[in-house]
Design a protein that fits this description.
The protein is an alpha+beta fold. It has helices at residues 12-18, 95-116, 122-135, 176-186, 193-210, and strands at residues 47-52, 57-62, 65-67, 71-74, 80-84, 87-90, 144-149, 152-158, 164-166, 169-173, 218-224, 227-233.
Amino acid sequence: MQDPTHGADLSTENLEGRFQTDPYEPELGSLPQSQRDEESVNKTGTTTIGISTAEGVVIATDKRASLGGRFVSNKNVQKVEQIHPTAALTLVGSVGGAQSFIRTLRAEVNLYEARRGEQMSMQALSTLAGNFARGGPFLAINPILGGVDDEGSHVYSIDPAGGVMEDDYTITGSGLTVAYGTLEDRYEEDMTNDEAQRAAAAGIKAAAERDTGSGNGIYIADVTEDGVDISDYDLDEVDV
């Protein structure tokens, strides 16, 4: 009868080479590799505005979804969402990337609060959003994040490469050049949220007049220490 171990090398060195990982350790997942196209963000069409005020934050967006800014694919898109008890986020870019980004960020905020028993600060939230934008499979996005915490009110622009920049106000999207001119004229320090809403609405309306990728109405998120209230209006409904 033949010895089954005859000629087999069962030395410790060979066994160590064959079993280099602990079979009881969980396997780590990885994000899918994908091609990024940061230049396409401003070609998708929209206008989003974030303004920090003495009372909180105002975020405004138009309602139009378009294909390359040339064909209107949807006339009633809500581009601003609550992602935190006192924070909201809006996006410029691909619909799939935007929706996935919001779901992922909202889930992480909920996990943070469940584990620590406290709300995530805006600095931590903006850093997390920047890390996701840089390292995740969220194609062609340019978020505006606005929120209120113990340190006050904050507005951040997060570029497609994950850069995070805080400012008093910021604008993204294909209508930004027109909207910036309007907002530069209307913005004042220590504005109230009501004043900021009128200024943001004026910027969206100006962009809708000249930018084919923006229009069909306005969504406005009013963010204070008490929470987030999101309302929508027709362009001619808003008092500017």
